[in-house]
Design goal:
Residues 1279-1299 have a biased composition (Basic residues). The protein is mainly alpha-helical and 1309 residues long. It has 59 helices and no strands.
Length: 1309
């Protein structure tokens, strides 16, 4: 045995090479013979024990060498042999090491070889089997992900128990192997052989679920680190593993923590941190994945061992300037964990506070990091710190301000986290549960007043004390002066030094107060000794001057006010009223603290108030995450009672208009959280709280938000969110069964029920009589608003979409019902009385009658005739009071529009429904007839023929019936509704008379009601519309009443939709309203026109340039409306592209300000992103050069060409059209714009074809300057922002006459 020299190979093939002085494998056994040889080896093992390996090494090596060809069962058999042999080897070593003296050198060498041979084979076979098992696991996972069910029968049948392997290795290394190796340490190659197994186990993803195995691995590695100097190799190998395997990011940090706790390997932290970070600095090792994994390990170490990471923080600080954002994030995470673990206590000393503030300042700096991921991560850290109450009060407002600033960050992830940070600072604020800015400001002003008053009192007390001390000094001064002068000569040779007032002034003062002047002077000189400065001053002074100087210093000590105050307070003298007392000072300190706290609180709330606007903008962000965070902020703001929280809630209401299902769900859940979630302990209190909240919301919202609230409540009811208990409580409010409910709340509850009924119709259909009794009974007579709300609610019951195939007629109430009598009496009784809100009730009543009454014309005719009787002769309208004229106009207009809707919708659909039922009955009758007559073939054929004829006749009859119904309704509306013989026709003449005589009826509300009534009458009949359309537009131009103009604009939209041929010639007059002085009229006109254009009701060409001018309007709302309109227009096929040249032509004439013109054109061109359209625009704008010789126009055309995104084809078109604009190249601005185009085309990486086109065009431009005598190419500035001031060109402009540029459109081009 002694002659065998086994060297652990670096590569397995090294053992196949013959060697004179080292062991090598002589025979590789054939795979077919391995089973037999394994059995032979097993027998040898039983006879010889672990020493058998020296004679059977080649057998096991053959298995390793041919592992890919052998079945797993054979490999596992070899593993079992070697595992048992290793266990027996450990027992043998223990036995031998108990009596080392009995072991000779030959025995040592023998066991040295056995250990190395056996461990080489054992570790190798373990790694081979484990690798195969891992490969099988990965393949099975992949098959599962692909849906395949085929299984490998050999997989996982022979898995190694990793834990037992590591335990065996650990037991082996714990033996005194140095004794057999004859060296002070175990060979590094042997250590590597063992550790490779453990590191291999860590590489396997399945190790993540084997906690006990991981602990055993790190116990083994920990032993090597402590006893075998494996520390540095351990750190290097761990970092290599982490860079490759993500699952180790958590395993490694847990393992290191285990080493520190169980093996006291604290120094590993520093080495590991340095190894993790330093490799990332070298660019040649750049690895984004490795950087990310290493950063995760650093973060996990900081989470699990923050105390041990504190010393490493300042070392890591230098990596915050590194390019890797993963590394920066991990360093910042480490800092945060350190702060949370060690620097958040209340008993921090000054050094710890300084360290904490320094780390927080670093974290604050990286809010402005260049990487969006770092900025977002930093805000997440601040959120966590705020939740843990780790942000000092002095930094609260600083961080909050920066978070608010980043609500407008370009990166969506930063905006989201910044918004979350603002919400977190609000939810975890230090200032209270109710944050009402107005009240805090009032409290701050009050406390400041008290503080100023107290300070004034203290100043007065100090002044009184100072005066008293001055007087006392004057009484003692002569005696003190005498003592000083008498002692100067004695001490003239002594050195002095400056006085330390803070230490000794109180002692000197005490002796002076006691009259012991000699002692006071001695102490003064003693503390002033050894001062070269005073000696130099003294040389230039006489004795009198020195005495005066000493006297001045002593006086300053005596008059030191604060020390006197403390002396007086501590001595409890009877003269406490002359100086500030302890109570004064305590009040001063408390008030100062309170004022500082309130000032910080007010600043905090002012910042939150500033956050409202950007948060509202986030509600309408393209990213749904922005909206989610903004909604969460407004929920928190509402819960904390912020002053402007309701503004955000109303904006959330507006956002319900979005058609996005996910956004709607977010809004519905948010409103549910705010209004439907309570902390009540019983159902009654819960429902009462909800009802009160909804009523308060209804009272505060504007008309703009009313429809949004309507939608939300309807959705809640439809989905069951607003349950029956709340509905029942609302009915109790309406019926006044609930105690202490006022009329206003009762009406509000009725309105909320109206909204709820739109989600579930049974809420109103089952309570029609109840609502009618309440609304039109005694309560309704006294409260006209209640009656109005009752009408609105009853109207909901008839808002269902009617189905013509429904056999049941629509639900309507007979005209002789008591409800209609009560409603009619209310209208007639109050018609000639000055009742507030009656006009609204009148409109609601007419709508209700047409919607729910079975014969509405009967009731309406009765109301109309009774009203006319009550107001007298209608021909004398000039003598009527204004309110009666308004009411009659409202009544006529409302009847006209409701009658039109009644005929077009209700009557026509009802006629179609009845016709459908008749056809259906006829078909059923024909079918039954065919069955009865189906006796013979001939009879059947005859019946079929008859039926076919009958069917064709019925279809023709149905179509004819529909046409007849439509003709009947059209004739009724056109010729009989507003005819001279009808009641409405007679009243229409008086409406027209009021409109034609604005001087007689010069009250704005009268004119507005008359024009609205006239416009509604015009909707009924085209003939009536044709007769009075000129009057309408004359009033639009001449009236001075803003509401009248707006009313005309709104109704013109309906007229244009119904009678386009009549109204279209007047559309240019509508566009003129865009130039009106009134902002409201301009807004209304723009809204109406944009709506008509987007619905293709009017053509976009011709006057659309007037709408484009609104892009630079002085009013923000107009600019926003214009921007939104053109954005939507750009989404409609080729609409914007088609009209863009036409817009340009008109803008050149109308817009004189060059900057405004450029702003409009930039915006419009920015909306076109189609390359083919861009190419066509080059042709169309180049064609404009030949329509004008004006250099200003040429300059503007060229500016438009700079706004086009050029590709090869569009640049080719620009070059081909050079002949059209070559004469303008000499114009300075035109030349500069062309150079700008060419410069933009060559930016970055461009195709060779584009470069060739640019060179070609540059040559043509240069050629123009060469052909023109005396022409010089102007210098090209870096940025073209100003007009050329070339005098010669200016003279040419004055000489040339500007030619009119014709309108450009698709047809003109």
């Amino acid at each position: 045995m002694s002659h065998i020299n086994f060297v652990i190979p670096q590569n397995r093939n090294e053992l196949l090479s013959e060697s004179d002085d080292q062991y090598f494998v002589k025979t590789i056994i054939n795979p077919r013979e391995i089973t037999t040889t394994l059995n032979v080896a097993k027998g040898c093992y039983k006879d010889e024990g672990p020493t058998y390996i020296s004679d059977n090494f080649d057998i096991y090596f053959s298995i390793l060498h041919q592992a890919d060809q052998l079945p797993m069962e054979m490999l596992f058999t070899a593993y079992e042999h070697l595992h048992k042999a290793t266990q027996d080897l450990i027992k043998s070593l223990i036995f031998l090491l108990e009596d080392k003296d009995s072991v000779n050198e030959e025995m040592k060498m023998k066991y040295n070889t056995i250990i190395k041979m056996l461990m080489y084979l054992y570790t190798s076979i373990v790694q081979v089997i484990d690798h195969k098992n891992e490969m099988n696991f990965v393949q099975s996972v992949n098959r599962k992900s692909k849906g395949k069910k085929k299984k490998n029968p050999d997989a996982f049948m022979h898995s190694i128990e990793r834990k037992s392997v590591v335990i065996v290795l650990h037991q082996l290394i714990q033996q005194d192997l140095r004794f057999f190796f004859n060296s002070p340490s175990v060979d590094d190659t042997f250590i590597k052989l063992l550790t490779d197994v453990c590191y291999g186990f860590l590489e396997a993803p399945t190790i993540k679920g084997e906690k006990e195995t991981r602990q055993e691995i790190f116990n083994f590695l920990g032993y090597l680190v402590v006893h075998e100097g494996h520390g540095m190799a351990f750190v290097i190998r761990l970092v290599q593993l982490v860079k490759t395997y993500e699952h180790l990011t958590i395993c490694i940090s847990e393992g290191v923590q285990h080493l520190i706790q169980n093996h006291n390997c604290k120094m590993l932290i520093r080495d590991l941190v340095r190894e993790i970070t330093e490799w990332q600095v070298d660019e040649k090792f750049a690895d984004s994945q490795g950087t990310r994994f290493c950063s995760m390990v650093l973060t996990q170490m900081a989470v699990q061992m923050p105390d041990l990471m504190i010393p490493e923080v300042m070392y890591l600080n230098k990596y915050l300037a590194h390019d890797s954002y993963h590394l920066r994030n991990s360093v910042l995470s480490v800092m945060v964990e350190v702060i949370l673990a060690a620097l958040t206590r209340n008993d921090l000393n000054e050094e710890e506070k300084e360290s904490r503030d320094e780390l927080l300042e670093i974290l604050e700096e990286h809010i402005a990091d260049v990487a969006a991921s770092v900025r977002s991560k930093v805000f997440q850290h601040w959120c966590r710190l705020q939740k843990e109450n780790a942000v000092p009060v002095k930094m609260q407002n600083v961080i909050l301000e920066k978070a608010i600033f980043h609500l407008r960050d370009k990166a969506a992830n930063v905006r989201k986290v910044a918004a979350n940070c603002v919400t977190t600072f609000l939810e975890y604020n230090l200032f209270g549960a109710k944050l009402e800015l107005g009240k805090l400001r009032e409290e701050l002003a009050e406390k400041k007043g008290l503080l100023d008053k107290l300070k004034s009192e203290l100043d007065d007390l100090k002044l009184n004390k100072l005066t008293e001390l001055e007087q006392e000094w004057l009484e003692k001064e002569n005696e003190i002066k005498a003592v000083v002068e008498s002692n100067i000569n004695k001490s003239s040779n002594e050195k002095s030094m400056e006085i330390d007032e803070n230490v000794d002034s109180s002692i000197v003062r005490f002796y002076i107060m006691e009259g012991k002047y000699e002692d006071a002077f001695k102490i003064f000189e003693k503390v002033a000794a050894n001062s070269d400065n005073f000696q130099n001053i003294k040389e230039n002074m006489s004795n009198d001057d020195v005495a005066g100087f000493y006297l001045m210093l002593l006086k300053s000590m005596f008059l030191k006010i604060p020390d006197h105050i403390n002396e007086v307070i501590n001595s409890n003298t009877q003269n406490k009223n002359a100086v500030p007392t302890e109570e004064h000072l305590e009040r001063l300190e408390a008030l100062s603290t309170t004022v500082d706290f309130l000032q910080t609180s007010v600043s905090f709330l002012e910042l939150l108030d500033q956050a409202m606007k950007p948060m509202i903008d986030l509600l309408y962000s393209v990213n749904i995450s922005d909206m989610t965070e903004a909604v969460n902020f407004f929920i928190a703001a509402y819960n904390f009672k912020l002053d402007n929280a309701l503004i955000g809630v109303l904006e959330i209401l507006k956002a319900i208009r979005s058609c996005d299902h996910d956004r709607k769900d977010i809004i519905l859940n948010a409103m549910k959280t705010i209004y439907l979630t309570t902390s009540a302990e019983n159902m009654e209190d819960h429902t009462t709280t909800i009802v009160e909240r909804l009523i308060d919301l209804l009272r505060t919202i504007s008309m703009d938000n009313l429809q949004d609230l309507n939608s939300i409540i309807a959705e809640w009811v439809e989905k069951g969110t607003l349950d029956n208990s709340v509905i029942d409580m609302l009915w109790q409010y309406v019926t006044l069964k609930k105690q202490d409910v006022c009329k206003d709340k009762s009406r509000a509850a009725l309105t909320i029920l109206t909204m709820a009924a739109k989600g579930r119709k049974t809420i109103v259909t089952r309570n029609i009589k109840l609502v009618g009794t309440i609304g039109f009974g005694e309560r309704g007579q006294d409260d006209i608003l209640l009656a109005t709300h009752a009408c609105h609610m009853l109207c909901v019951s008839s808002m269902d979409v009617r189905n013509i195939s429904d056999p049941n007629p629509p639900n309507r109430i007979y005209a002789n019902d008591e409800m209609w009598k009560s409603l009619r009496d209310m209208v007639v009784t109050n018609f000639d009385k000055r009742v507030k809100f009656f006009n609204g009730f009148l409109s609601a009543a007419v709508e209700l009658i047409f919607r729910l009454c079975s014969t509405p014309l009967v009731v309406i005719e009765d109301i109309l005739k009774t009203a006319l009787v009550k107001i007298g002769d209608a021909t004398e309208e000039s003598s009527l009071e204004a309110f009666l004229l308004i009411r009659m106009n409202v009544l006529v207009g409302e009847i006209a529009i409701r009658f039109l809707n009644f005929m077009d919708e209700d009557i026509y659909k009802e006629l179609k429904r009845r016709q459908f039922i008749r056809r259906d009955k006829k078909k059923n009758n024909n079918k039954s007839l065919r069955k009865r007559n189906n006796v013979s073939l001939s009879a059947s054929q005859s019946s079929c023929s008859t039926d076919a004829t009958a069917t064709d006749d019925s279809i023709l009859e149905g179509a004819q019936a529909c046409d007849a119904d439509a003709d009947y309704i059209s004739d009724l509306l056109e010729n009989r509704t507003v005819s001279s013989s009808s009641t409405l026709g007679k009243l229409s003449r008086h409406i027209v008379y009021q409109c034609e005589n604005p001087n007689t009826f010069n009250e704005e509300h009268v004119q507005c009601s008359a024009i609205s009534a006239l416009l509604r009458l015009m909707l009924v009949s085209s003939d009536f519309c044709s007769k009075h359309i000129q009057l309408i537009f004359t009033i639009l131009e001449k009236t001075s009443f803003e509401d009248v103009k707006i009313s005309i604009l709104v109704h013109c939209s309906d007229l244009l939709e119904k009678y386009p041929n009549i109204v279209e010639p007047y559309t240019p007059r509508l566009f003129l309203r865009l130039e009106d002085k009134s902002v409201e009229i301009r807004k209304s006109a723009f809204f109406i026109l944009s709506n008509l254009i987007l619905r293709d009701m009017i053509r976009a060409q011709g006057h659309i340039s007037e709408m484009a001018i609104s892009i630079v309007d002085e009013e923000d709302d107009m600019r926003q409306m214009a921007s939104n309109f053109f954005v939507q227009l750009s989404h409609k096929a080729n609409n914007l592209y088609t009209v863009l040249p036409d817009i340009f032509t008109h803008l050149c004439d109308k817009v004189k300000d060059e900057e405004q013109l450029k702003t409009i054109l930039k915006f419009l061109f920015g909306l076109i992103d189609n390359n083919k359209q861009m190419e066509s625009l080059v042709d169309r704008f180049c064609a404009k050069y030949r329509l004008s010789e004006d250099e200003n126009v040429a300059k503007n055309i060229t500016f438009c060409l700079t706004l086009i995104n050029y590709n090869e084809r569009s640049l080719k078109k620009l070059s081909e059209n050079f002949e059209l604009y070559k004469n303008f190249v000499l114009v300075n601005d035109v030349y500069l714009y062309l150079k700008q185009i060419l410069a933009n085309c060559t930016k970055g990486v461009v195709k060779q074809e584009i470069k060739d086109r640019v060179t070609e065009l540059e040559g043509k431009i240069k050629g123009m300057f060469e052909l023109t005598e005396g022409a010089k190419m102007p210098d090209v500035p870096k940025k073209v922002t100003r007009k050329s001031k070339n005098k010669s060109l200016a003279k040419k402009k004055q000489v040339k006459k500007r030619s009119k540029v014709e309108s450009d459109s698709d047809s003109s081009d």
